[in-house]
């Protein structure tokens, strides 16, 4: 089974995963970006990597282990990858914070790194995630059409 903690940057996904990592038996904990993110990573790269992570979840599944994966891929993207139907199950938790809190966390985590347009992009991505949480099916179909 794939257990997905998803949300935009600075929502607390990694902190949550780290807090439970040593306490869960039969669950491997990974971060989507631990394999590295190339400069200019785009939707196509993210979809490809999502497929690779789903395949890794399938490898764990064969051994009776679930995968808890943190990352920014919304549920629709996970459902749209070719290997997703092979999973025994997918459970997703949107980890979210208020936009003002996210802004403050971005500044505290990476002082001076993000300009106003980058912060706006993070806030837009958070809104996109909220849309997936409300009604994923139309969004998943759209991703499947572009994969």
What's the helix and strand layout?
Elements: E1 2-6, H1 13-21, E2 27-31, H2 43-62, E3 66-71, H3 75-80, E4 90-94, H4 99-109, H5 116-134, H6 136-146
Parallel strand pairs: 1-3, 1-4, 2-3
Tell me what you see in this structure:
The structure is a single chain. With 147 residues, the protein is α/β, with parallel strands linked by helices. The chain has one domain (2-146): Rossmann fold (3-Layer(aba) Sandwich). The protein contains six helices and four strands. The chain has a four-stranded parallel β-sheet with strand order 2-3-1-4, sandwiched between helices. It is globular, with a radius of gyration of 15 Å. The model has no long low-confidence stretch (mean pLDDT 89).
* Number of alpha- plus pi-helical segments: 6
- CATH homologous superfamily placement: P-loop containing nucleotide triphosphate hydrolases
- Rg of Cα set: 15 Å
What characterizes the major β-sheet? 4 strands, parallel
Low-confidence stretches: none
Q: State the end-to-end distance.
A: 22 Å
| Count of all domains | 1
Report the count of strand segments: 4
* Shape annotation: globular
Q: The CATH topology is what? A: Rossmann fold
């Amino acid at each position: 089974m794939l257990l997905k903690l998803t949300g935009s940057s600075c929502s607390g996904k990694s902190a949550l995963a780290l807090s439970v990592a040593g306490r869960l038996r039969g669950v491997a904990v990974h971060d989507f970006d631990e394999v590295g993110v190339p400069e200019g990573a785009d939707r196509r790269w993210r979809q490809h990597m999502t497929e690779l992570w789903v395949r890794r979840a399938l490898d764990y599944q064969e051994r009776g282990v679930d995968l808890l994966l943190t990352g920014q891929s919304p549920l629709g993207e996970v459902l749209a990858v070719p290997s997703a139907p092979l999973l025994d199950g997918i459970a997703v938790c949107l980890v979210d914070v208020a936009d003002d809190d996210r802004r403050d966390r971005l500044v505290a985590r990476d002082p001076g790194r993000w300009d106003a347009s980058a912060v706006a992009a993070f806030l837009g991505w958070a809104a996109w995630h909220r849309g997936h949480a409300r009604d994923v099916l139309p969004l998943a179909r759209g991703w499947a059409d572009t994969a």
